[in-house]
Write the structure tokens for this entry.
Amino acid sequence: MSEENKTEETQKAVRYSRVPFPQFTDRKVTSKEDNIWKLQRVKTDITVELGRSRMSVSDMLSLRPSDGVDLNDSNITPNDLKQYVLRLERQIGEPVDLLINGRVFAKGEVVSTDAGENYAVRVISILTEEQRIDEQLRRLPH
């Protein structure tokens, strides 16, 4: 095919036409409440975030298991403790974050179950839309 013919083919007008879709007028229109009811049965994973920490790669690489180490030993310096303990930004007793798909939707309190063998979280507040946006902004890297 010559260069002239190739140019003619690329310059031809492209024709568009409508695609005939059937009308769906015979379908029942469901209300918003019907759709919400269907979603209520969908299961999703919830993550509870106890806290966060920020550290250098060097400090992270120096972390060690504390097997056999008495963390209350008065001979352990604060610098040595950094090898065994990861300090979180959250204070003891401060509410924990409940997340769905990495987004905070509620705050909770860590409790134990009746048997005392498992942790549980008591929901103490569901965030408003404005609070959820604030939480997402707070969680952005500094």
Remarks:
- Residues 42-139 form a domain with the Surface presentation of antigens (SPOA) fold (CATH 2.30.330.10).
